[in-house]
Design brief:
Layout lengths: L6 H5 L7 H14 L2 H5 L6 H25 L2 H19 L10 H5 L9 H19 L7 H16 L17 H21 L6 H27 L5
Helix pairs in contact: 2-4, 7-8, 7-9, 7-10
């Protein structure tokens, strides 16, 4: 089955066209492809006339369909976001986003590049927030505490200058690479939620929050164990 042509292309207008421009474009196509207008033109033979009438009929119907969607603010908003599938869902009495994947609804995810330092810093900040919520106070500011943790980490690792962040590139399959991927995905999800463009069911959000809470607890334990210099499980 051939894919439907974009409604804006059908009418020959831009995606930011006004209601007046859409109405004018529709009227122009209607006049040009009206059966009475088409059949009264001169043709070399009857076959050519029938072909022209058939083509005009398709354009006539397509323009009517496009104008019916784009002239309705609600349907136009759904079409702009979900395309023809969204309109089909509306006509079937469903939500415009029904039957679409998370990626289709949220849009393409832009991958960011993170160093090992970025990844560990992310988890240090989570641990810092946890300590603050527990009421712990060592007399340092949050920034000073994170810097101290960074310096301790560099010293324990035994590499690099104290003023130069380590930028080891995670190797495939390594533990650091796993945390790098997790941090990237968490950051991407946070960006999507902040923008308000993601339509996620409440139950999924609650499950995701529970998983994050559990992960944070395990990460805090690992950070505390690492700072004490103890063995990792």
């Amino acid at each position: 089955m051939a894919e439907k042509e974009d409604y804006y292309q059908v009418l020959g207008v831009a995606k930011d066209a006004t209601a007046e421009q859409i109405k004018a474009a529709h009227k122009s196509i209607m006049l040009k492809n009206h059966p009475d207008m088409v059949k009264n033109r001169k043709y070399p033979d009857d076959a050519a006339k029938q072909k022209a009438l058939a083509e005009a009929d398709l354009k006539f119907k397509a323009a009517n369909e496009a104008e019916g969607v784009l002239s309705d603010p609600s349907k136009r908003a759904t079409y702009d976001k979900y395309g023809h599938k969204g309109i089909e869902n509306l006509n079937a009495g469903k939500s415009g986003a029904s039957g679409q994947s998370y990626e289709q609804v949220a849009g393409p995810v832009v991958r960011k590049s993170y160093s090992e330092e970025d990844t560990l810093s992310f988890f240090e900040k989570r641990a810092e927030r946890s300590r603050t919520e527990d009421g712990s106070n060592d007399g340092l500011t949050s920034e000073q505490r994170r810097e101290k943790a960074r310096q301790d980490r560099i010293a324990k690792r035994g590499g690099g200058s104290s003023s130069t962040p380590a930028t080891t590139v995670p190797t495939p399959g390594s533990a650091i690479n796993v945390f790098h991927d997790v941090a990237t995905k968490v950051s991407d999800v946070a960006d999507k939620l902040k923008s308000g463009d993601v339509a996620v069911p409440l139950a999924d959000l609650e499950d995701f929050r529970k998983s994050l809470t559990k992960l944070e607890g395990m990460i805090d334990q690992q950070i505390a164990r690492a700072k004490r210099g103890g063995p990792r499980p």
